[in-house]
Design a protein that fits this description.
Rossmann fold, binds zinc ion
């Protein structure tokens, strides 16, 4: 009976890694549509990111969609990334490599899996998109490898989508890019960092 109770709990719960940006916002909206939003638990990592709106917009989006939200402290990861010279991007570049945080996906997926285990969830969803796949830790093969290590499903439903696809789909879901998400690496919409550059391209490109 103990096992049955655990199986019943596991049946519907889903974890979504939410960054506050466009991609994970769509992954969350799609997950909330696929299952009851009350069964969806979004988590946002606080690793000392400069754009604190990532946290406030994430919380507000979860309230809008009717799902659960938790903020998970990962200060140590932010400190290590900064010591490695990563994540310290400033304005004036549209090179996405400048903002890469090595091993971010492994750390974030691992924390997501641990969170999922703690609440009895059956999946962890990430908003990785096709243009992220230039990074060695964001391609399909990378996630396939991680999947072999766990029974919890690792979902990347946007992995073939472009940023313009995401912008279109967000509008269809009733999510307003400018007010429900934040894509800036620095502070609310600096207009100069790689994320702002890509977001502007996506909005202009469809
Ligand atoms: Zn920016």
């Amino acid at each position: 009976m103990l096992g049955l109770g655990r199986l019943a709990r596991k049946r519907n719960k889903a974890v979504v890694l939410l960054s506050g940006g466009m991609d994970s916002a769509l992954a969350l909206a799609m997950t909330c549509k696929a299952v009851n939003p009350q069964c969806v638990h979004a988590i946002t990592f606080d690793y000392g990111q400069l754009n604190r709106e990532e946290l406030t917009r994430s919380e507000a989006l979860c309230a809008k969609l009717g799902c659960h939200w938790s903020q998970v402290p990962l200060e140590a990861f932010g400190l290590m990334a900064a010591r490695a010279g990563c994540g310290t991007v400033r304005g004036g570049t549209n090179d996405p490599h400048a903002s890469m945080l090595p091993h971010k996906n492994m750390v974030f997926v691992s924390m997501g899996l641990a969170f999922a285990e703690s609440i009895g969830a059956e999946s962890v969803t990430l908003g990785v998109i096709s243009t992220d796949c230039f990074m060695w830790d964001a391609g399909k093969g990378y996630f396939d490898t991680l999947q072999r290590l766990t029974a919890i499903e690792i979902r990347t439903p946007l992995i073939t989508m472009s940023k313009a696809d995401i912008a279109r789909a967000l509008e269809q879901e009733g999510i307003v890019i400018e007010s429900d998400t934040t894509s800036c690496y620095l502070h609310g919409g600096c207009g100069e960092c790689p994320a702002c550059f890509v977001a502007a391209q996506a909005r202009d490109g469809w």
